[in-house]
Each structure stands twice: as structure tokens, then as C-alpha cells.
Amino acid sequence: MILEVAARAPVGLLPVVAFLTALMYFDSYKLVGLRIVVATIFVGAAAAGLCYVINDAALRRLSVDFITYSRYVSPVIEETIKALTIVYLIRSQRIAFLVDAAIYGFAVGTGFAVVENLYYLSIRPDSLMAVWVVRGFGTAIMHGGATAIFAIVSMALTEKRPGDLTALLPGLAAAIVLHSAFNHFLFQPVLSTLGILIALPPLAWLVFRRSERSVGDWLGADFDADARLLEILDSDEFDTSNIGTYLQSLRSHFRGEIVSDMLCYLRLHLELEMLAKGMLLMRQQGMSPEVDPGVRAKFDELRYLERSIGRTGKRAMKPFLNLNARDLWQIHMIGR
What we know:
Elements lengths: L1 H25 L7 H28 L4 H7 L1 H18 L6 H26 L5 H32 L8 H16 L4 H45 L8 H9 L5 H29 L9 H23 L8 H11 L1
Helix pairs in contact: 1-5, 1-6, 2-4, 2-5, 3-7, 4-5, 4-6, 4-7, 5-6, 6-7, 6-8, 8-10, 10-11, 10-12
């Protein structure tokens, strides 16, 4: 029996892990670190435990049979719980591109699927190998793919509608529909597994192709813009530039030392942005750049300046320091 379980477990667990590994490998910019991916997998595993408790309680209280429940109720519960991690990452500006959204989403689904399949293995250790092929290549990949789709769609819509929570609903609906559709074919497992394997790889390829192009365009345009702005800050033309003139106008609303802190904050933020972009370019060339220990001190100074400037000061800086999700994400990237 032990040998049979040992033979079945890899079939049920390794495909989803291998798919996630492939996603990380093909990310040439290495946008998501291994440590955070592992942490996200554990979060997905915890989500599976929470869903088990909720599903068990709901199934006892609802007057529906198991098949109906698995088709229309459990997909809503499970995809909503899995989505919470992605919502947090998007809202905290830890995700900036579609490719890292896909990796984070699939990592959550991987943790969920591993726990679910381990539980199934514990209660059905004598299941046929064909069952484990379906669970490994079908059910597990579905869990990862559904959450990845939520992350991709939500990230794409959030970029267009920042701060709008309704931008998360289409992705959640897509994940629930995929999950429900898969569960409709529980008694035709080969068909559902083939459907997942046929649909997800092309989707992953399209996401990576679009995201790689997006990262390249962003790096090229923003790197030049940041360099030009730093050049202006260090030149004699600063006082007559638009930024210089605007900062001078703020002296009528803020104390002189606050305006000076704004200028320091702008310079430091630009330096950290350019450092992050440089690291991405080096990663794209296959190098593994190390972060200078002095960068930590710059982050401490950045936080001090943020407290000194305050919320009102940061709002006043928006005309020349318009921080979007990607700007904030790159600061997180070298800060972690």
C-alpha cells in the first residue's frame, strides 16, 4: 500500500508544481522571487484548509446534493477565498505586470491543489492511477489556472480603473465559470482534463508575450524620462524648468524645509527607480545583480522624507511625481 501511495502522489502533485516552475523559468525579467512564490504557495495551502471548513459547514446546512453543490456553490467559495491573496497583492502594489500576476495566481492555486490532492490521497489511497492522472493534470492545473486568470484579468482592468474594486469582478467571474465548467464534467474526467491542458498553455504563452513587450516598452521609455529628470535636477536650468517653477510656487503653501524635503524625495525616488530598472535589464540579460547594502539606508531616508512631507505634501507633488502601480512596484522589488 505504501509503495502504491508513493507512486500515485507524484502524479497528483508534480504537474501543477512543474507548470508553476515553467512559468517562473520563462519569465526572463525574473519579476517574482522564489521566496515570495514559496510564501504564496503556503498561503494557497492555508486557503484550501479554510475552504474545507467552509464547504463542510455549508454542505451540511444547504439542502442540495453534492453534485449540485460542487457545480454551483463550491466554485464561488473556493475562487473567492483564493482571490483574496491576489487582491491584497494588487492593492498593495506588489504586482505591476501580467506575467507576475499569472505567477502569483498560479502559485496560490498550486498551494491549494497540493493540499486538496494530499487530502484526497489520505482518504482514497487505493484510487486507480488514472484518477491521479486526472487530479494531477486536470484538477490541480485547473485550480492554478483559474486563480491565474483572475489575477491576469484583474491586473489588466485595474491598470485602466485604478482604485475601482468593481474591476476585480470580471476576473472573479471568469475563474468561477472555469471552475464550475470543470466540475460539470467530473464524470467525464478525460474530457475536462484535455480541455484544461489545451486551453491553459496558449493562454500562458500569450500573457508572457504581451507582458515581455510591455516590460520592454516601459523600461525603455521610463528609464530615459527618469534620467532626463535627474539631469534637470542637477543642471542650471532647474530653476527655470517646469518642476523648479512649481516647487517655488509651493513655498507659499508649505514651509521652506518641507519644499526642500520634497526636492530630496523626488531625487531619491528617481535614483531608486533607475536602480530597479537597471536590475531588471541585467536580469533580462541573464545576470543576477546584488543590491548594494547602501540601498537600505536610502529606503530609511525615503520613509523619513515621506513622514516629513506628509499626505498633503505628497498630494502636492502629484503633478511631477505621479506614482502608478509600476513605479511603486519597482521600489518594492529592490526593497524586499
